Amino acid sequence: MNDRYLSVDKVVELLGTTARFPRRLIEERRIRYVKVGRHVRIPESAVREYIASRTVGPVGLRRTGLRRVA
């Protein structure tokens, strides 16, 4: 149990968003979270998993096969 549990405000700082975004992720159950009484905490690993699953890699250059006609 080496995971830190972050408040919504800390997740906002990490993601660079408004508070509405992580709250919507929680409401829609798109990210793991823990209820501690009336408080909601998000495991740091859940934030890392969310970022990793939505990271888009670069697109390589494609050769089109079209050739110039003289």
TrEMBL record:
Pfam families, alphabetized: HTH_17
GO terms for MF: DNA binding
Domain of life: Bacteria
Helix-turn-helix domain location: 5-54
Position of the signal peptide: none
Stated name of the protein: Helix-turn-helix domain-containing protein
Organism: Streptomyces sporangiiformans
